[in-house]
Structures are given as structure tokens and as C-alpha cells.
Amino acid sequence: MKALPFLTALVATASSWLPVNGQADTVCQAADRTFSTEAMPASNFQPYDKLNPIVGKLSTKFYITVVNLTPHRIKLDGTHSYQMDTFDFGDVPQGRARQNTVKYRGTWYTRDDAGEAYYRIDGTDKQFALRVKSYIPSSDPRRVVLDLSGMGLGQREYVFPGGDTAVSLVITGSARFGFRASLRHGPGNWMRGMYDVIRDRPVRHLIMPGSHDAGMSKITSKIVSIGSEENTQNQGVSIYDQLRAGSRWFDLRIGSVHPNSDAGRNNGFWVMHLSDEMATLAIGNTGESLDEIVSEVNRFTAENPGEIIFFSLRYLVGRYEFPDRGPILWDAALTNAFFSKLRGINNRCGNLDTSTGFQNQPASYFMDRNGGKGCVLLLLTGHLDGEGVPREATADGIYDISRINIQDHWSNKMQASDMAPDQIKTWRSVQRGGGSADYGSLLIAQWLVTPDALASTAYTLQSFALEPTNPSLYSAGVNGMDPEHWPNVLLADYVGVQRQDEWAWDRLSAELYTLAVGLNLYLASENCDVNTRRSPLLRRSGEEKGTVHRREEALAWNGIIFANGTTIDAPPPTLHPGRAEVLRSGTVLNNRTVLEESIANPWP
Ligand SMILES: *[C@@H]1O[C@H](CO)[C@@H](O)[C@H](O)[C@H]1NC(C)=O
Ligand SMILES: *[C@@H]1O[C@H](CO)[C@@H](O)[C@H](O)[C@H]1NC(C)=O
């Protein structure tokens, strides 16, 4: 085991000698930084052929990525494995991610395979275990239990999403602040929960999940085209559930649908996903209606006040039901009809100061509005170019997108292994904090791949998201960040969805939510040019225990969620699915010792 890094030791013992309420506890100081620059093993990406479900099912190799957004080192206590060629786990330093590798020997073993990795959070009494076990016969044989019962954060059994891909665990918080992990979603209004932490940060220093083609959570066929669920649906859950799953930036493409015989009539405003909205012949389909979206947003903000929600509204043209005659440009009447739908959204923010880019306003400028209920910002970026067509209605909170400076980076790559380095390069090229060097825009990282129509139809956009793409955000993406380098919006397909076609709210998983919370709480807070006060995870006095933590305590849960959805809220303390009670003779320990006879599992 490696020696304790000096700074971690300092954090663990600081309370004994630093003055409580002294300056050291309120001011961010470079010497407090815990972020580790230790190199991690390079992350692997799912090879293309494993997307084929038949090939993927035969794979015996997969990964468990652990993301550490805490000021403590996560230390490996030990591992054991049986029937495995590779069982490679290791420490996860502060601010880093480790993609741990599991590879079965030969083919599948049904009854006697075992593999567990035991971890503890350095300098605390918290521990957790990762328990790998296969179940044959079963349609979902490859599983891992993330057992965080030793942190009071429950246990959850996950099925690996596909061949050679990862299940991810994101942990944030601290011993002082309290911990949270990605097994379950926290409160819907996560921004309000960390109001004390982010209120003074300009919006361009926030980090938030975003939803790509957000309204394409279903296929509604309001236009006649070949867009199908496989190649045109980008999300598994509605805008309401995407909001609950943490999304705050919505890429929404809206068009009006017109009868083939009458461009003057409008069959309503619908989300569209088209190959090219301006093309003579458009290929694609429609998703949610604007009416549905309005009521979903209103439901969310009524239940979860205090957030900043961005709607980037694109397209803004009409198409015929049979979309083969080019776009119908909106005239003033159609645009006003659209605006009056938008006025149905509650908690809009009219009459904002437009002399300053919205990205430069502190978060509190928006979060405090509407009596503390926050802002739904409507930002238009479509084809509103006609004579006399309004481009905004600032009194109603409808703004041109140019009111906020954004850089929207799309890689346009089919493979996650090509997309990831391209995205990381973009956010590494901009500096966060540091006076005039500070990057002035909101950087949208499109963490998604763009398969061609043939590949997306064959393998589905959902598989591309859940197998090669989303899991790589937690390994490659996180290791491309540090306190000076990160994107603002993590734009993703299938937000909240961890497992193919499992779209019910209680089947979702909170990796993206917890990542965003942790990047704001931990990573950005370690940059003293972004965060002038002491990191919320290191404070001791007064306000150090944020509302996040108090709310988490109120929601304390140490149950078990099984892969089939069965949930036990109060399991007996001895119930640990996937745990090997006996380590058989032939079991390999992580110090490469091979057991010559069977022993009882020595770990608690
Ligand atoms: C779900 O899995 C648990 C644990 O394996 C099992 O006890 C339970 O019977 C299963 N429920 C269903 C409905 O299959
Ligand atoms: C390996 O670990 C086991 C269990 O902790 C221990 O008993 C054994 O002595 C270790 N072997 C070596 C070579 O360090």
C-alpha cells in the first residue's frame, strides 16, 4: 500500500490544531488542495464489435469504474477472485477515476465464481465492497453488487450493460460533510441544495448534466418518415424525469407540423429530430409535444424550487406531415403562437439584465428569482429570420441565445474512443479561474457519439449511449478533468438510464447526477480562483454542513436494490448479495497469494 499523501493526512488531522472559525476554515487556500495528479491506468473503450448483442453476450471482460470526488483517498484493502484471469483493482486517489478490470477465465462459471474488492475511505471509518458474481441460467448473468452499506448508502445489484463495458460508481462528499453515492438519486433540486456553495459562482463556473435531443423520449410519428426508436430516439425518460435526474441544459428542437395540403394550418408544436430541418426532404421523427413539455417543467419546478434550467430551443420551423417540400418558415403569427405556448411555462425570468452575458451572472442572480423558485431560461436559436418575426420577448423571459456566450462542442465521431479524447482536448484547452485567463463562455461538452443511420438502426442509439459512450464519461472523461479544467454542460443521450429499456424512475441510476453534484462540490471548490471560500467538503464550522448534507441525512437509506427491481428498505445487517462466505482453495488474493485450502472470508 502507498504512503498517505501529506495533504490527506493534513485534512484528517487538521481539526486538532487549526483554530475553529479562524481564517483557515473560511478562506480557500492553495495548501488545502487535496486533488491528486497521480496517473491512473488508461481507460479502455468498448470495441465496436461488442455492440453486436450476440458478440457482446459472449464477452467475459468488463469493468467497474470508481470515481472519487472526495478529499479522501479511496484505498483498496484487498481483493479475492476465483475463476478469473484478471481481477485488477486499485486505490482511487482524490479527484480521479479508476477503471477496474474483471475478466473471467475461459467461459462463464455458474456456481462457484467469486470476486470481491474491499475498499475504505482513508482517514474515516467508512468502507465499501464491490462483489462480482455471475448467474447462469439468467438473461442477465453478469452482475456486480456495489455494497455501500458500510457507508450507510445502501447496496445495489447492477447488470453490466454489454460486453467489455463498465458499471460505474461515483462517490462524493467528505467525512465532515457527509457522503453520497450514485446508487440512487438525491433531491430533484440539487442546485438549491448547494446554494451556499454555488450562489456567488458565475454560471460559467457551474457544472451540470444536459440532455441531447431532450424531447426525443418517445416516437410520436407526427411526420411521415423513416425515423424509428432505434435511430431517432435519444432519451429513455421524459423531460420531467430528466430534470429529476439532474439535467439542467435541454437541447430541444421544436417545429410545427402542417397538413400536406395546407401550410396555413398548424397541427401543433412538436419536438423533432431530423437529419436536416431545412432540407427539401427531411428524415427523422417527432417526440414529445410542446404542451407536454410545458406541463412537465411546471410540475418539476413546483416540486423542486430554486433551480436554473436552460432550454436551448432550436429548429423553429414548420414541416409538412410528409416532409418532402422543404421547411415552412414561421411568420409573425406562427412565432407569436409559439411564444404564447412558452408563456405557459412558470418561473420564467423576464427583464433580466441583458448588458451582461448570462454566463457571467452569479448563480444567485437566477436562483433567487420568482421568490426563490429559480429561473427557466428560454433561449431561442432557430430560423426566426422572416420579416417582422420576433426573435425574443425579454419581458416574458424569452431570449435570443446570444444573451449567453456558449461554446457547443460536437465531435461528430462514431466511436467513443475517438469522441472522448476530442472532447477532453476541448475542455483542457480552456482555463478556469485566474483572472483574465478565465474562460468566458459556457462550454457544452457533447459526450455522445454520432453513428451513421445503418449502425444506429442495427445497434440502436440506446446501445451506443449505454455501452461505449456514457460509461466512458466516468473513466476517461473524469480523468481528463482537474480543478482548472472542466466543461460546464455534460450533454448526454439516455440521461439517467443505466440498463437497456429500464426507463421507470426507480430503475434509473444516478451516476450523472452524482458526478455533477460532486464536480461542483469537490472539483471546482478546489480551485481558489473559482471558489474563494474554503471547500465545503473541508469546512468544520457554522455553515460547513451544507443543506445538501442535512437533506441527505433526512433521506438516509441503507437498503438493497436487486437487479430485478426488488427493493428491501431495511435488510438484515448480514445480508450482502454476492458475498463469498468461503474463499475456495485456488482463490487468488490481490497480493498474488493463491490459497491452498479453503478459508472463511476474512473480511467483515
Ligand atoms: C428478485 O431477486 C431477489 C434476489 O435475488 C429475489 O429474492 C426475488 O424473488 C426476485 N423477485 C422476482 C419478482 O423475481
Ligand atoms: C497476502 O495476503 C494474505 C491475506 O491478507 C496474507 O495472509 C498473506 O501473508 C499475504 N502474502 C504476502 C506474500 O504478502
UniProtKB/TrEMBL annotation:
One of the GO BP terms on file: lipid metabolic process
Key words, A-Z: Signal
UniProt key word Signal: yes
SUPFAM superfamilies in the cross-refs: PLC-like phosphodiesterases
Listed transmembrane segments: none
Signal sequence segment: 1-22
One annotated GO molecular function: phosphoric diester hydrolase activity
PROSITE patterns: PIPLC_X_DOMAIN
Organism domain of life: Eukaryota
Keyword Signal: yes
InterPro entries, per the entry: PI-PLC_domain, PLC-like_Pdiesterase_TIM-brl
PANTHER family, alphabetized: PHOSPHATIDYLINOSITOL-SPECIFIC PHOSPHOLIPASE C X DOMAIN-CONTAINING PROTEIN, PTHR13593
Protein's UniProt name: PLC-like phosphodiesterase
